[in-house]
Write a structure and sequence with these properties.
The complex is a heterodimer of chains A (115) and B (115).
Chain A lengths: L4 E3 L2 E4 L5 E6 L6 E8 L3 E9 L2 E5 L6 E5 L5 E5 L8 E8 L10 E2 L3 E5 L1
Parallel strand pairs in A: 2-11
Antiparallel strand pairs in A: 1-3, 3-8, 4-5, 4-9, 5-6, 7-8, 9-10, 9-11
Chain B lengths: L2 E3 L4 E5 L4 E3 L2 E3 L4 E8 L5 E7 L5 E3 L5 E5 L4 E6 L8 E9 L8 E2 L3 E6 L1
Parallel strand pairs in B: 2-12
Antiparallel strand pairs in B: 1-4, 3-9, 5-6, 5-10, 7-8, 8-9, 10-11, 10-12
Classes of the chains: A mainly beta (115), B mainly beta (115).
């Protein structure tokens, strides 16, 4: 079974631009979560989607948004990019997210550099 | 609020020696605990998790972890380290009442295994 895939793998943008990252979960997985990883803040939860609905959100400004499609694929969007948005963005999928005991499986990440 | 502490930024061990990576947690209610490993320029790979039952959990690649409720710890162990175990290790926690994404990660511990 194929793992979680994320595109693109690398991205360079300039301040003020916007960016869209894509995540395809493991086949059959319906819950998708997004995390930001930076050297200073570590791994931080952005949001989680299930059945095209955002069920949980971390403490990030409104510039960070996401959505999920009917095939469970998810996108996240960051508008008005700031230098501090440079990070590795990780997507994780799980079966249904219906239980805290479910394992989340991570993709390889998208490395975003904002200049 | 839940939190995870990994008290060591880096652990150095010689190949063939036992490896221990420490993790302590704070969570309301019963914790679900996870260990992930991250290799350079890669996403997180799941190693093992504690849900309930036996305090000693066995996982992938010869790793195991011991859950200690009284000490609120979940240390990762490997009896004989390999050079290929050199990577960044993350401990994560979710309270049993939280079912919608949001793994809370520790800061990570860099493991260096020398030949």
């Amino acid at each position: 079974k194929a793992g979680v895939t994320q595109t693109p793998r690398y991205l360079i943008k300039t301040r003020g631009q916007q960016v869209t990252l894509s995540c395809s979960p493991i086949s059959g997985h319906r819950s998708v979560s997004w995390y930001q990883q930076t050297p200073g803040q570590g791994l931080q939860f952005l949001f989680e989607y299930f059945s095209e609905t955002q069920r949980n959100k971390g403490n990030f400004p409104g510039r960070f948004s996401g959505r999920q499609f009917s095939n469970s694929r998810s996108e996240m969007n960051v508008s008005t990019l700031e230098l501090g948005d440079s990070a590795l963005y990780l997507c994780a999928s799980s079966l249904a997210g219906a239980s805290a005991r479910e394992t989340q499986y991570f993709g390889p990440g998208t490395r975003l550099l904002v200049l | 609020a839940q939190s995870v502490a990994q008290p060591e930024d880096q652990v150095n061990v010689a190949e063939g020696n036992p490896l221990t990576v420490k993790c302590t947690y704070s969570v309301s209610g019963n914790p679900y605990l996870f260990w992930y490993v991250q290799y350079p320029n890669r996403g997180l790979q799941f190693l093992l998790k504690y849900i309930t039952g036996d305090n000693l959990v066995k996982g992938s690649y010869g790793f195991e972890a011991e859950f200690n409720k009284s000490q609120t710890s979940f240390h990762l162990k490997k009896p004989s380290a390999l050079v290929s175990d050199s990577a960044l290790y993350f401990c994560a926690v979710r309270p049993s009442t939280d079912s919608w994404g949001k793994l809370q990660f520790g800061a990570g511990t860099q493991v260096v295994v020398t030949p």
